[in-house]
Design goal:
It contains eight helices and eleven strands. The protein is α+β, with helices and mostly antiparallel strands.
């Protein structure tokens, strides 16, 4: 019995995604190009492809599950053809040891699977890049399952977990079918300085007490290199400075692909590691005559 679920190694309750995943794995492992001249491997590949062809079609899968067609996509004749004798298999049925069905790899159009045309499966790859590489874009390379080295063009501003598609760089097709694609999932390695929020770049910047109180010009890192920024007098921890157009490129999906997001700098006031006595004496003298309140977050009640 040709059971497409068993052929793909999945349960009848398997989701469409699970069936697709199982097929891709089996198709990669059993592709005829991996073992030229092995007819047994070729026939196995045909069975795998035929099983996926049936189960990937919701209508055909439903017919199979309801017993209306067999695992080859052939409509079942039903009991009305079973009264003609010859072992209950009638001339229109599947008697004579399956003689009525002809080639066991016959497809739904009634043609022999010898001329089966199967498209190649997509192959998934992983690519890790740094934060600055994701911001600037560039060229990277991956090595395919067959040892081929492929160039991957990384667009500027690419986000973590984005998938790049390399057309026709997956497994080759069979019987004239088109090749699958290479799907490259990009992982952006977290940066110790920059963080990303959509197309904006965020960073925390430490400033001294005199810089915060009196104001100052300080150097700030950006993805384009360091720039000079003015810290306004009387700045506080949590003060945010904006650098317009210093964020991530908006990309091709935008009407203005060359436009960029912004960079936001959050100031953090840092006291000296060692407090000298003069500073302590000043605070002790100044504090009683200059009281002020600060907002302190309280934990939520349980």
């Amino acid at each position: 019995m040709n059971d497409p679920y068993k052929t793909l190694g999945v349960q009848p309750s398997a989701s469409a995604e699970a069936i697709k995943k199982a097929y891709r794995k089996l198709a990669r492992e059993n592709h005829p190009d991996l073992d030229h001249g092995n007819t047994a491997a070729e026939e196995k590949f045909k069975r795998i492809s035929a099983a996926y062809d049936l189960l990937s079609d919701p209508n055909k899968r439903g017919q199979y599950d309801r017993g209306e067609i067999d695992g080859l996509g052939t409509k079942k004749t039903g009991a009305r053809h079973g009264a003609s004798g010859f072992g209950g298999a009638g001339f229109g049925g599947s008697g004579f040891g399956g003689f009525g069905r002809g080639n066991p790899f016959q497809n739904r159009a009634g043609k022999s699977s010898k001329g089966l045309k199967v498209n190649g499966v997509d192959v998934e790859y992983a690519l890790s890049i740094g934060f600055l590489e994701s911001a600037k874009g560039g060229e990277k390379h991956i090595t395919t399952t067959n040892g081929k080295r492929l160039k991957v063009t990384v667009p500027a501003g690419i986000a973590d977990a984005a998938v790049l598609r390399l057309k026709s760089q997956g497994m080759p097709g069979f019987g004239g079918g088109k090749a699958g694609d290479a799907l490259v999932e990009v992982t952006v390695i977290p940066d110790p300085v920059f963080r990303r929020e959509e197309t904006d770049i965020l960073l925390d910047l430490s400033v001294t007490l005199p810089e915060a109180v009196l104001g100052a010009k300080i150097e700030v890192p950006t993805i384009d290199g360091p720039v000079s920024v003015t810290v306004p007098p009387g700045s506080n921890t949590g003060t945010i400075l904006r650098l317009k157009g210093k964020g991530m490129p908006l990309g091709k999906a935008s009407k203005n692909p060359d436009q960029r997001g912004d960079q936001y700098i959050t100031l953090k006031i840092m006291l000296p590691k060692t407090l000298d006595q003069n500073f302590i004496d000043f605070i002790q003298t100044w504090a009683p005559d200059h009281p002020y309140e600060v907002h302190r977050k309280r934990p939520d009640k349980v």
